[in-house]
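Working notes for the structural subgroup meeting. M.R. asked for a predicted model of this chain before we commit to crystallization trials. I am recording the input and output together here so anyone reviewing the notebook later can reproduce the run.

Input as submitted:
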Amino acid sequence: MQLNTTHITKNPIVLVSAIMSVVGWLITFIGACIIGRAGLLWWIVIYELLLLGGIFFSIFRHVFHHYQIVFLVFLGISISMLTGAIDGLIHYTSGGNQAAGAGAVILIVMQFFWVILFGSTEDSLVYQFIYSGFVSPVSQNVVNIGMHGNGSPKESKVALSSPEATGYHTHQQQPSIASIHHHHQSPAMHSPIVAAPSPGMAPPPQQQAQKLTATALHPYTANPDDPNELSFQKEEVLEILNKSGNWWQAKKQDGTIGIVPSNYFAQ
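Returned structure, recorded in token form:
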């Protein structure tokens, strides 16, 4: 799964979960300050600060996909520690304990949501439910296409983006084999001699070459760290050379070839 700042800022559900997590940590921190004594609670406060900081930093740096499994493990550890802390804090009636317990409850609820979100693939019902209502595109900048020794593209990362309409439309062209051959041969190879077809033999039918094109639904800016990605504008038409996977190999009108996110295009 890929996450970036657009996933947070353009989706109210995810944005609220991020804000509530920060609020929950602040309440827990204030409660720990009121209690004053050192111990397990302070370790939990520091652990939660590092965890939240690491998740937000990786999202803003567009490297979340590199550490997704690590964050899921740390979230599981966090939920376990918060559960024990809540059980210990709710038995005290002091203001500091009540505040720290309330903050821990907010944190654990948000982290349960994050575990479900981070652990779900883009094809899952959970992911589609969260993002299906928000048409705003996700600026991916997170997928690279690796090349094997034989030159075949390999999808090295998975794109996460809104699951709305994807697709392409085809534009039929019918250039003849003779015209293609004529285009590629040098002037010195031209010859006025044309072989006549044998009597009773029909000329070979012209082969149809299918050209796939797709129109961009939204503008997209390529990741500067990935030279394979293409930038394009809304309603720009690109020729699709390879439409396998979530990222397609495409060619712009100026002849530039690279990869584009398939979910930015519609039929």
